[in-house]
Write a structure and sequence with these properties.
Layout (H helix, E strand, L loop, with lengths): L1 E6 L3 H12 L4 E7 L2 H11 L3 E4 L8 H11 L5 E5 L4 H9 L4 E4 L4 H12 L7 H7 L8 H11 L4 H8 L3 H15 L4 H10 L4
Parallel strand pairs: 1-2, 1-3, 3-4, 4-5
Helix pairs in contact: 2-3, 6-10, 7-9, 7-10, 8-9, 9-10
């Protein structure tokens, strides 16, 4: 059995997630938390195999809770489950040690599959992002990888231009090429795909 802790401050959402997971023969919901402080405490007390962690919660947000959980147990396997698909949440989540980032509109099959993957030691992204990663595109040039690494550090085009001693227009061209080659439309998705494919 895969022991799971579910942390979400919305009672209806938390109940819905737990109800879906309880239908799976190999998944056991061992704990429920409604704020970040409770999530950290239960993670330490229950030692779940996988933790589903909402980003925005009272008392302590999910990202800070994730940092504390991982600080106390570096082997903790956490999936960030959220309605947000933007770099303000994705980058900090992954940097804090999340093994996956899944949107709340995921199906029961996708959610259960994500838990099984993370429990088995694999990392994952939202299925939409993963599908884009598997599309056939040309490999990135060395300079495009440089730009991508700086994008992953949260640098804007002006900062990247300064760091690489090129014009901002050149950076914009590189960014456009990166989007085309990786099959995505925004910086957050580009960095996630690059991490998934070990391009940076």
């Amino acid at each position: 059995m895969i022991r799971v802790l579910v942390a979400d401050d919305h009672p209806v959402v938390q109940h819905g997630i737990c109800t879906m997971l309880e239908l799976e023969d190999d998944i056991d919901v061992v704990g429920r938390a409604s704020d970040g402080v409770a999530a950290v405490a239960q993670a330490e007390q229950l030692h779940p195999d996988v933790i589903l962690l909402d980003v925005q919660m009272p008392e302590m947000d999910g990202i800070e809770a994730l940092r504390r959980i991982r600080a106390r147990n570096p082997e903790a396997r956490v999936i960030v489950l959220t309605t947000y698909r933007n770099e303000d949440y994705i980058f900090p989540s992954l940097q804090a040690g999340a093994r996956g980032y899944l949107l709340k509109d995921a199906t029961r099959e996708e959610l259960a599959g994500a838990i099984r993957d993370v429990a088995a030691g694999r990392s994952l992204l939202d299925p939409e992002m993963v599908r884009a990663a598997h599309a056939e595109h040309s490999m990135l040039t060395a300079r495009e990888r440089d730009v991508l690494r700086l994008m992953a550090d949260g640098k804007n085009n002006a900062h990247i231009a300064t760091a690489l001693f090129v014009s901002e227009n050149t950076v914009k061209t590189h960014v456009s090429n990166i989007f085309t080659k990786l099959g995505c439309r925004d910086r957050a998705a580009a960095v996630l795909i690059a991490w998934k494919r070990h391009l940076i």
